[in-house]
Design a protein that fits this description.
The protein is α+β, with helices and mostly antiparallel strands. Helix content is 18%, strand content 13%. The chain has a three-stranded mixed sheet with strand order 2-1-3.
Length: 127
Amino acid sequence: MAQVAARLPHGLSVSGHTDAAPFRGGNGERGNWELSADRANAVRRMLLEGGVSEARLHSVAGHADRTPLLPAEPFAAANRRVSVTLLRQAPSPAAAPETAPVMLAPVGFGTAAPAPRRAPALETAPR
């Protein structure tokens, strides 16, 4: 994934997640927040080693169990994941794009990014 991302110009956001089970690592001093942040940082390091410029990383964050992939199953293994989001910049107002700017969905376990949607036609009022 890093080799493909390195060839793209877009910014990236990395998010680590856990399931709802309490993490009991490091004598109780570490919890799901630390675990999810560690997961995100591990992917950040892999992206950098794979050729992604650090300047393209817009955020690296741990979300613990706050945004489960499967909300109805908070303890499901699928909730333990890392999401890498490819960010797209909004076009300047001078450029009339054919498609609306879209932020791609996080790509994690069992998810896929949605296809871009066509932008509605712009109407201009007479001056």
